[in-house]
Amino acid sequence: MNQDIQPTDHTIKLSTGSFTIEELEAIFSNLPAEVSFVDKNDLVKFYSNKPDRLFLRGKGALGKDLRLCHPPRFQAMMQQIIQDFKNGKESRALFWRSSHKDKFTSIEYIALRNEKNEYLGTLEVVQDVTEMRSLKGDRNELVYSPK
Question: Domains (ranges, CATH) in the chain?
């Protein structure tokens, strides 16, 4: 391993590299999507803390049952998704909606499994895809994105 990227005791080590906690926080805060993780017991364990979240989350969500973090009209559907993920029937569920804060929003649930195909939890990825929906052709020149 290169001397410049030698893990320290304050590093989270993964199979393909490592991060400091500060680096990992910065990555999740700057991803072009909101990410939440729900463990195999259906408890919210993590959410990315983006300053411009489409769906508000607070620290009060941590440790709560996933279904209780959604409006009542979606709770039965969330129960079905989790059940289908746990029993291996399904692995992904994609939804989208327009007119949420004048954005076109993609909401995807992804079953996380280990190498033995055992269910570890669910990843929720929420993304504003308004701009992507309108892309056409190619862009091969450098154009910086707005901040």
Answer: 1-30 (no CATH), 32-133 (3.30.450.20)
